[in-house]
Write a structure and sequence with these properties.
Blueprint (H helix, E strand, L loop, with lengths): L1 H5 L18 H22 L1 H33 L6 H22 L4 H25 L1
Helix pairs in contact: 2-3, 3-4, 3-5
């Protein structure tokens, strides 16, 4: 969030740092407040255990998405660094992306409503982020 403010994606005050401690206190507060709202609403609406399943599913999918994107970008990063990538590099990337895609697929097969809700919320967040990034790029 701090870097997004510094890069102009979010308002500049989000990237401010504390004068004495040099910590990104505004971004930390926004993150805390968003987590508090999500935890409170999901607990009230879904109950404690289901709220845990909902947030754990969304967090897991977010982490998996980051890993998929990092793995998929490795050949480009290797090429941009001036090194040559080999067929083994491409095969390892493909294997990692396929394995993580299988985990995504397995998540969608759940019959637990909190897991399905978490998955839908995560998918909506990814779509909204992609739309926002597309409009900001123009």
């Amino acid at each position: 969030m701090f870097d997004m403010g510094r890069d102009g994606i979010l308002p500049a005050p989000v990237s401010s740092v504390h004068g004495k401690r040099l910590t990104p206190h505004v971004a930390a507060f926004i993150t805390f407040f968003a987590a508090l709202i999500i935890a409170s609403l999901s607990t009230i609406l879904l109950g404690g255990f289901n709220a845990f399943l909902f947030t754990a599913t969304a967090a897991t999918l977010g982490t998996l998405l980051v890993h998929v994107l990092i793995n998929a970008s490795m050949p480009s990063a290797i090429k941009n660094s001036g090194d040559k990538y080999t067929a083994v590099d491409v095969l390892l990337v493909a294997a990692a992306v396929i394995a993580l895609a299988f985990v995504f697929y397995g998540t969608f097969l759940s019959i637990s409503s909190p897991v399905i809700i978490g998955t839908v919320v995560f998918a909506a967040f990814v779509i909204a982020s992609a739309v926002m990034a597309t409009f900001r790029a123009k």
